[in-house]
Write a structure and sequence with these properties.
Layout: H1 20-29, H2 31-39, E1 48-52, H3 58-67, E2 72-77, H4 80-88, E3 94-98, E4 111-117, H5 126-134, E5 137-148, H6 160-178, H7 182-185, H8 191-197, E6 201-213, H9 218-233, H10 243-253, E7 268-279
Parallel strand pairs: 1-2, 1-4, 2-3, 4-5
Antiparallel strand pairs: 5-7, 6-7
Helix pairs in contact: 1-9, 2-3
Length: about 280
Amino acid sequence: MPALAPLPGLLGDTSTRDYARKLQLFNSFAEPELRRAISSLNLAAGSRVLDAGCGTGEALRWFSSVVGPDGAVVGIDLATAHIAAARALGVAKATVLHADLLHAPFAPASFDLIWCVNTIHHLRDPILGLQRLAVLLRPGGRIAVGQSSLLPDMYFAWDSKLERLTNAAVRRYYLDRYGLREQDLAGVRSVVGWLRGAALRDVTPRTLLIERTSPLQPADEEFLLEAIFRDTWGERLRPYLPAVAYLELMGNCDPTDPRYALRRPDFHFLQCFTLVTGGL
């Protein structure tokens, strides 16, 4: 087994960290847009694809259907829990390996496409990570880096002030937990610059809008309620919000409260997903 990074990632990632449930919820929620992004790559049948930071592995199934029986799909991830979840999907043509993308166990020029979604910004040196991945590309190969939420998400269309206060509270939480300032968190908006800094050519961004309105599909409500309202926000934001704002936020996030946002007739959610491609 390849050596894993000795230091945790920028957001605390180690081989023992587990947020598999959140990844599964996001992939189910954003599946239409993620599959549309994959389709936009116009991959040829028989291609070899690496999903670097494959998480719980849902994209492995999507890529397998695109590359067909003559292609190959490989997923790697740092977290053992994510690898277990990806293997449990049982995608017949996919190989899932426990590995750090900075030390990926592949020969140079092994892949036609490297897909890397919501991962590069976890690295302390994203450009180094892209350089290491680029070595694995065949001539004419491409890296596709996907990142959600380059722009602030809209949750409460009727209350921009509460959104603003909540976003500020999340930033303060990240400062306390990870020592990351707002400037550090804004680095994720530099994906185009990261690919150019790694000497990739023909760097091209494309942004899709993830848009949901009420009534929500079950996968949409499950993701927003569990992964965002409870996991990302919840009790941990209490110290960072004025008391009145915290109570208002909790009312919007509580399915038993008449103010519950996800069942309001005017609920309108917006989130962007940006895919930036570059090649050799």
